[in-house]
Amino acid sequence: MALLSKNKRPDIITENGIEYTSKVMLDLQDLKKVYPTPKGDYVVLEHLNLQIMKEEFVTIIGHSGCGKTTMLSMIAGLNPISDGRISVLSNPIKGPGPDRGVIFQSPSLMPWLTTLENVMLGVRQVFPQAKKKQREDICKYYLSKVGLEGSFYKKASELSQGMQQRVGIARAFAIKPKVLLLDEPFGMLDSLTRGELQDVLIEIWNKEKITAVMITHDVDEAIFLADRVVMMTSGPRAKIGDILDIEFKRPRSRKAIIEHNDYYKYRKHLIDFLEH
Ligand SMILES: Nc1ncnc2c1ncn2[C@@H]1O[C@H](COP(=O)(O)OP(=O)(O)OP(=O)(O)O)[C@@H](O)[C@H]1O
User: Fold this and answer.
1) How far apart are the CA of 159 and the centre of ligand 1, in A?
2) DSSP strand E in the chain: where?
3) 66 lines ligand 1 (CB under 6 A)
4) Residue identifier of the C-alpha nearest atom 28 of ligand 1
5) What is the DSSP string of 180-245?
6) Residue 206 CA to ligand 1 centre (angstroms)
7) How far apart are the C-alpha atoms of 254 and 222, rounded to whole Å?
8) Under a CB-based contact definition with an 8 Å cutoff, are residues 58 and 213 in contact?
9) Ligand 1 in contact with 37 (CB < 6 A)?
10) Which pLDDT belongs to residue 1?
11) Main site of residence (predicted)?
């Protein structure tokens, strides 16, 4: 049991029906999303409530099409909310902002720009007052952290898929977000690269003390990375079905976790949820 640790739980004080806690980073309240379709309105999400704590790493799993990307893109401010509210540190979001960084499955880099220039694009917008050298230093720091110290001046079109996703990770961290939103970031990578990038992600997340919300279809990845795994019910009208606390201590070793009895309990819990 040495691998297990109690996760810090929120202190929720209820005042006049309002839940308040200083530890909440992201608050999704009675969220609803409706897509108009030729056959009428399609209610993807309804009565979805979720609180994510500061510095927490949450993974989201659920059946294909249940609305995971819809939820994440609403948190990112890229997809309008039909009803309910999303707040970051108690401030309702009004659109995209530098407080939320996003990493997609495919990083969509500008192929004609270098690695460094691709990361600079966001940094220039977020830190317009900084000197060019300061901005470059931030970009180079994060590119080095993801293992691209030798590739600052390579064109994005010359990079492998794994290297491009490394740039995607550096680009998201370089704008110093409070919340990092990841939509199946390693879905297109081979298992070796995937494992390497999971380690890179956890190392920077831990150092920067930010909050991470990541969609994945991989149950093992969900357990390895998360403090909590959030399970979404199948749509339509999807909401949070269950939440599993992952109490393995950090830093985590893949080998030690796989050998731990609780790993199989966690795994069974998630697979049972997905199969029913
Ligand atoms: N712009 C849109 N207009 C109409 N329907 C949409 C739109 N975007 C998504 N949908 C529908 O909403 C549902 C949820 O889609 P979403 O991409 O959020 O699911 P998901 O859980 O992320 O799926 P996957 O795991 O396959 O990526 C799906 O039925 C999808 O077809």
Assistant:
1) 30
2) 13-15, 18-20, 24-37, 40-53, 57-61, 83-88, 91-92, 100-103, 179-183, 211-215, 228-232, 240-245
3) yes
4) 65
5) EEEESTTTTS-HHHHHHHHHHHHHHHHHHT-EEEEE-S-HHHHHHH-SEEEEEPPSSSB-EEEEEE
6) 31
7) 12
8) yes
9) yes
10) 43
11) membrane
pTM score: 0.92
Going by alpha carbons, the residue nearest to atom 26 of ligand 1 is 64
Instruction: Indicate the residue type of 107.
Output: P
Answer yes or no: is pLDDT of 173 > 90. yes
Q: Which domains does the chain have, with CATH numbers?
A: 1-99+177-276 (3.40.50.300), 106-176 (no CATH)
Which of 31, 39, 68 gets mutated to test ligand 1 (max ligand atoms within 8 A of its CB)?
A: 68
Nearest to 184 by CA among 145, 234, 221, 239: 221
ipTM of the complex: 0.98
